[in-house]
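Example 394.
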Amino acid sequence: MSKTIAINAGSSSLKWQLYEMPEETVIAKGLIERIGLPESVSTVSFAGDKQVVTKAIHNHTEAVSILMNDLKALKIIEHFSEITGTGHRVVAGGELFNSSVLITDEVAKQIEELSDLAPLHNPANVSGIHAFRALLPNATHVAVFDTAFHSTMPPVAFRYPVPNAYYDQYAVRKYGAHGTSHMYVAQKAADYLGKPLDDLKLITAHIGNGGSLTAIAGGKSIDTSMGFTPLAGIMMGTRTGELDASIIPYIMAKTGITDVSEVIDIFNKKSGLAGISELSSDMRDIIKSRDAGDEKAALAFDMFVDRIQKYIGQYLAVLNGADAIVFTAGIGENSFEVRKAIIDGLSWFGLDIDDSKNVVGADGIISTPNAKVKVLVIPTDEELVITRDVEKFK
Ligand SMILES: Nc1ncnc2c1ncn2[C@@H]1O[C@H](COP(=O)(O)OP(=O)(O)O)[C@@H](O)[C@H]1O
Ligand SMILES: CC(=O)OP(=O)(O)O
Ligand SMILES: [Mg+2]
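Predicted structure in complex with magnesium ion:
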């Protein structure tokens, strides 16, 4: 018996779970959310109790300190040395990492150097790695990459139509993200549908603060909406998703911004739901304001839904039809409003939501029995996938 902790740093959150392994028993888990927003919330569940603390948490380094402090203060563990394994979600592995690896000084450096491919994420992932390697010098530390699952994409999907030299010399290509989540919910969907994953065509929609859709055939990622970095694809909490690259020099010329990284920073951090609503990046806030009559929040909601519908349309084409669409992550798991708005607009494709199943706490199939393409809600478990990978190195 030994304890392993999985650390999942997202753009707005830090999720962790401490497991007794190999039993996969969850000893305690935590969710630090709304990082960087007013009223961040830290929730720890342990021994049947739930502690919820609301306070400003400015960045992921602060979130990691809170987590470490809680482990001892809440008596979840007596000594840090009880933790013999740590698994770290790393968003970008580039072409260097196609599977999980043991973290050495060299690997930690490489992950840091890959930050250009995930500027909101890899630096946060690295801060968790450094903190835990310093705290637990004798534990097994493993990096689990979001991009690994997408390494099966064919060139027709992962190449950009730019001159070949950019790929050949600089590896400019689509890498995707959220791979552990897409993989996990695809496997679960096969269980729900009662068919082998090998025989299924699925569209998985991981919709959180960051979000991506993946076309999965026979359990393999064949296309995904995130790109060279997690800026691409659907509209997100603070990110633009897809847009015409010509906008960049145009905005620079019009506004007088001279540093291109400033524009990219605006596209990463001040756009998406936050940019259109001028209110919040958080879908709960958007829905509340829309319902209260706020027009900008309503437009933000509608644009968000529109972009997801378009990717579903694309992937129905890429897969030449699909057996099911799976919703997961913060918004996909929790917002029946978002799910309904998306599916109601796709009835021509044989999608039909069952309102009595599309409710708070939905889990499993939420489409009607006659729907040609099934719709499912499956809570993701990136932490479990990460922890299982740590065990392979122990
Ligand atoms: N009950 C809910 N209704 C609507 N949206 C929700 C609900 N709970 C969480 N969300 C949304 O989920 C998003 C965060 O998703 P999450 O997967 O945790 O993000 P991250 O990308 O940081 O991992 C936020 O936009 C939040 O508003
Ligand atoms: C890659 C990415 O956007 O991750 P998250 O949704 O956790 O921010
Ligand atoms: Mg996430």
